[in-house]
Amino acid sequence: xxxxxxxxxxxxxxxxxxxxxxxxxxxxxxxxxxxxxxxxxxxxxxxxxxxxxxxxxxxxxxxxxxxxxxxxxxxxxxxxxxxxxxxxxxxxxxxxxxxxxxxxxxxxxxxxxxxxxxxxxxxxxxxxxxxxxxxxxxxxxxxxxxxxxxxxxxxxxxxxxxxxxxxxxxxxxxxxxxxxxxxxxxxxxxxxxxxxxxxxxxxxxxxxxxxxxxxxxxxxxxxxxxxxxxxxxxxxxxxxxxxxxxxxxxxxxxxxxxxxxxxxxxxxxxxxxxxxxxxxxxxxxxxxxxxxxxxxxxxxxxxxxxxxxxxxxxxxxxxxxxxxxxxxxxxxxxxxxxxxxxxxxxxxxxxxxxxxxxxxxxxxxxxxxxxxxxxxxxxxxxxxxxxxxxxxxxxxxxxxxxxxxxxxxxxxxxxxxxxxxxxxxxxxxxxxxxxxxxxxxxxxxxxxxxxxxxxxxxxxxxxxxxxxxxxxxxxxxxxxxxxxxxxxxxxxxxxxxxxxx
Amino acid sequence: xxxxxxxxxxxxxxxxxxxxxxxxxxxxxxxxxxxxxxxxxxxxxxxxxxxxxxxxxxxxxxxxxxxxxxxxxxxxxxxxxxxxxxxxxxxxxxxxxxxxxxxxxxxxxxxxxxxxxxxxxxxxxxxxxxxxxxxxxxxxxxxxxxxxxxxxxxxxxxxxxxxxxxxxxxxxxxxxxxxxxxxxxxxxxxxxxxxxxxxxxxxxxxxxxxxxxxxxxxxxxxxxxxxxxxxxxxxxxxxxxxxxxxxxxx
Amino acid sequence: xxxxxxxxxxxxxxxxxxxxxxxxxxxxxxxxxxxxxxxxxxxxxxxxxxxxxxxxxxxxxxxxxxxxxxxxxxxxxxxxxxxxxxxxxxxxxxxxxxxxxxxxxxxxxxxxxxxxxxxxxxxxxxxxxxxxxxxxxxxxxxxxxxxxxxxxxxxxxxxxxxxxxxxxxxxxxxxxxxxxxxxxxxxxxxxxxxxxxxxxxxxxxxxxxxxxxxxx
Lengths: 501, 250, 216
Known about the structure:
The structure holds 3 protein chains of 3 kinds. Chain B is an alpha/beta fold. Chain B contains 14 helices and 8 strands.
């Protein structure tokens, strides 16, 4: 009998979590607290409700036209599971291929090391400015702030990231980071923060997009260093890819002399052929398109075409800690499509900021605690009603509800192992467990609950319960306990013949 | 056939009418219902709140009590969901592979009410009579853990006198989520508000579902706002006939 | 221990006994569609899907290709300052007769600077593969397609796709491509949906995509 269960208590020095004090994986407050503020923001709720509703419908349409969608999902899941099991071999294969094609591969234990590597490469080029393609990995490690500390300006070139950067804001969605802003707010940000912007700018989306085009055009044409993430890396060939829509990615990947790509170690696929699965799963799940406008693929340095100095930074930053969790490791299969955000009833109402991490929504509720250690994001596994909508849409079949339940147990076991005095919840759960474990105690407790009828006064329902149950009656009436339980009714009417086999 | 009733702790303690209705319905259809008094709770609340250690004795109890039966029914999608998808995992997590294997075998014989009726007993029309305007909330665990599909709606469509109206955004969660409703009470309430909005838009007299917990949540909100819309379990609708109506208390 | 050695050691520790475990990958999704369209139907599907994502499509034969390309350039620049006397860049390996009917300045790319490219009004290239189902054209940097910058900086891209380059599905497209080449998958013009999820065509890449489908 394994007494601790599979719940990996404490930090394993062999697989440390992402370090504190750098990057954006931990919020300042619990989900519950942050959500309360978000729920009261009617503008935010309208913006997010409209956007998630739109994209949900688009996704459903383009997924519906693929006959072999379930087979593709299963292949995507299996390919990622296979990749995780063979990670050391595949990563070194990738390294060999990229190096053979003229690229340079760096390994980073964590955010601090990755940031230092990127800053050093930029410094060596003599440039003090980089243009960036939207990348979750570089947001996760706080690269822009680290570069600023090193005297290097990072310019976000994705329209939404630009809106977020100019607005001195934080991204709230994986795919469309400015989803919490509407056109009027974006116009306001551009007028205030975009140098040389046309003062007659309207809030028409086309006009706003063209303002961003004009603003960034010079930057692209003069940039000497580009920084990107990667959607997929092919171990077999050393090919990296970026999937995007606006062409800002192509600009950053093609025009600068130096390209630095920061990629989590889990972003691998084994073979070139495997892309045939993911290039179908990702766009349809993500933007709800049959294919995104632009996908770039490059393998090291291509003489006479694009950057002639190409770097790849392979990032751990808590990924091996996630990999060590046998149930949780499936979170590393995530291809960052954000379909789970768009169907999540919790995300739809709170938005992304409440999650405190660059990874919001259902996937964030499991990925962030897995990367940081559960106790550093202890409220996130509970930020779900376990409705299961996320699992249904996940293109690589990550069983998010299963991992949420598992991480909740990890949290409870962790507390149990480190605290001497149990809190009220732990006492209540232990008491309930003790009562339910024995039918005599259970029946006695049922009878003991009956005086609760008095709380209803003369009414059919209870309007106010004492704490902590007052959390229930703050917004809902509670049922009045019946005069007779079913068990008592059965015994009374059937003479106690409980029935045996 | 002989069917063991797992009443669930919530229905047993707080909503005995739901379990009584299940008994009346199955007996009317000519089946023998037994209620093993040794039963307590499936442990779902413990598992979903992180207390798997406390759930383990409840899993063992469920297995011990119900193993002798060929078919077990519970009037709750989420409890059956826990039995089918969590019991073996909990046992295995604490190294009890023997109970895990027994739990897996038992899970295959444990049914939510609409599954039992449609798949095992092969009935859709149960001679029920319920002359009211009803909208049906399919509940997350019935839909996405058990995949009951439209079985409850098949049963409801066959009910005489019913005016069944489609619930907008029916597949969206009502916001209950067990202890989620307490731990994230604000978010839960925001979800409930939208669910109630959709229920009210149907102008139904009753909102029905196959889970007393979701109904407790939705009904608690509808009652708080004095909407006059009542909740009713699927079993209660199916239990009443023209000659012997099932009275749903206010 | 180097970072490399340490990260690899961590992965091995994390995987434990699961390291190297074999996972079956069932490739029972459709790699080739049993009912895949052929001939005109395949062309029609690509045409429809390209148009769906706001590319402009015209059909041509080998004989009238030059006229079709010239017309695509005129249409693509209609209403812009470059309408008369446009400056069109072409990759060095593009057949010269394809662009012979263009009324304007045709510049062969021999490593033009970005600033010069920025002053070009359009680009004409061939393609490597087209995927009909998704309305996608893939460029692979061959001499008739050129380096990536020339199809990125000018505002109009005229792309000539031959019938035998069209496949039905993404798996067939992937199989035809050489991963050691620089690849650009293009599905319609550049677009953003970042503002209230309203699709706006034409942000940083070419704002107009004109496709000429050649079938004899």
